[in-house]
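Figure 3 (text version): structure tokens given as input.
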């Protein structure tokens, strides 16, 4: 049993597809162990994506992530990190397999609907970034 962090990004929240995205997780064996809707500050977004701070797209990514509320979740299940990444699809929705969340709901590589932890270690750090232990059920 693993836990991973998922974020429904501002584009998908604005589009009103929070429920449809959550259904992908629940229908594929991922339980929602924690969930909240938050508006990130610039400071939050910069800290969360610090690993990308030297990349040319960093400022656009931060601006996008603070452009509206996001829904942050802890997903739990067998092989949750890899399963969530499979359900999400490729970073660039143009390359995402049909039926994945990004193929169905994302606009482009900047507004790509969801974030998901890419390793178990990052999942632990990202979950701790957003949730206190008592908020995870
Ligand atoms: P993810 O794990 O699939 O979300 O991808 P990464 O962790 O590599 O990148 C974080 C986010 O930065 C992605 O979801 C994209 O929104 C954005 N991003 C990554 N690579 C690029 C790029 O080459 N160009 C642009 N414009 N954005 C990118």
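Below: residues designed for each position.
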């Amino acid at each position: 049993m693993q836990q991973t962090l998922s974020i429904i990004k501002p584009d998908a929240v604005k589009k009103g597809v929070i429920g449809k995205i959550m259904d992908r997780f629940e229908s594929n064996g991922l339980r929602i162990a924690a969930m909240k809707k938050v508006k990130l500050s610039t400071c939050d977004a910069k800290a969360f994506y610090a690993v990308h701070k030297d990349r040319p797209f960093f400022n656009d990514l931060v601006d996008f992530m603070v452009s509206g509320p996001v829904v942050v979740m802890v997903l739990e299940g067998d092989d949750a990190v890899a399963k969530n990444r499979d359900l999400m699809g490729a970073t660039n929705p143009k390359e995402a397999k049909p039926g994945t969340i990004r193929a169905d709901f994302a606009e482009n590589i900047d507004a790509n609907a969801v974030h998901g932890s890419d390793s178990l270690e990052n999942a632990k750090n990202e979950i701790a970034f957003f949730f206190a232990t008592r908020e995870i059920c």
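The mean pLDDT is 98.
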